[in-house]
Amino acid sequence: MDIAVTGAAGYIGDLLADALLANDSPLNVASLLLVDTIEPRIRHDPRVRTLALDLTAPGAADQIVTSNRQILFHLAAVVSGHAEADFDLGLAVNFDVTRALLEAARKRANNMRFVFVSTVGVFGGDLPPVVLDYTAVTPQTSYGVGKAMSELLVNEYARRGFVDGLAVRLPTVSVRGGAANRAVTSFASGIIREPIRGECAVCPVDEDQRLWLCSPKTVVKNILHAGTLSSAQLDPWRVINLPGLTATVGEMVRALREVAGEEVASRVQFVKDEMIARMVASFPPEFETTRANRLGFIADRNFAEVIRIFIEEEAKKKC
């Protein structure tokens, strides 16, 4: 298959590229284009081509969506905190780029599977206790607005037969490796990652803040799985809430203490940031995912297991 990934220099995009190229990949990759604003990591694989590209530039979408492209995983985004600080850039990347890619597919690759990676941040405000796939989106952030508009566009292009589109809403991903980014939920990884690495971490929300979580390993499997589903398996509404697990920040720290010990857990400090706390509190902490489960998407068993996997991955890097 001829596949492309936008946002391939990001943490999840990089892991997705590795998973696509692995021997046990569920997709048979003949060629893989990795695209981001900076050049993605070089891989010594003849199937791979990397491209540094300003996705907002005129004609950029045409370099990604070619007539032989079969799957596009669209991960490129300006994350929540950055989109809130720079409205114009956030709208340009999170909505205008998505529209340009969809329109390019409409013109030359309308059988292409377009996997749009969205977010639970499309929800906000006064929500039911448990959010469904069909719960109305009411975003409370610029990031959520851009993603919600893009979801509607992906669904409409799929309905009209312009592209084989599917949007998957990611839970907050924890524990991410690498450095912190400008997402307001970045702390959900930082309060685990930094203490394990021997550093202190500041948590900007209260201990009782509930989060909908998923590990990097599981979220990459689910994004890949979205590329394997046939159109016949999908409902007319092409937007899916991915499975996750609900935990309070306090429960996350207790899991850290259970797995890594008191000395490590004591490195987490709580210093509330009102802006971040307000934005995070607008995100729903619990979802009903029967539809996703039926389609074969998966969830982590518990957060302690997520931490153990992260520690194992960190140990491998040192070898």
From TrEMBL:
InterPro entries: DenD, Epimerase_deHydtase, NAD(P)-bd_dom_sf
Protein keywords: Carbohydrate metabolism, NADP
Source superkingdom: Eukaryota
One Pfam match: Epimerase
Sample GO molecular function, one term: oxidoreductase activity
Boundaries of every NAD-dependent epimerase/dehydratase domain copy: 3-200
Gene3D superfamilies: NAD(P)-binding Rossmann-like Domain, UDP-galactose 4-epimerase, domain 1
PANTHER family: ADP-L-GLYCERO-D-MANNO-HEPTOSE-6-EPIMERASE, NUCLEOSIDE-DIPHOSPHATE-SUGAR EPIMERASE
Name by which UniProt lists this protein: Uncharacterized protein HI_1014-like
Species whose genome carries this gene: Papilio xuthus
Gene that this polypeptide is encoded by: LOC106125432
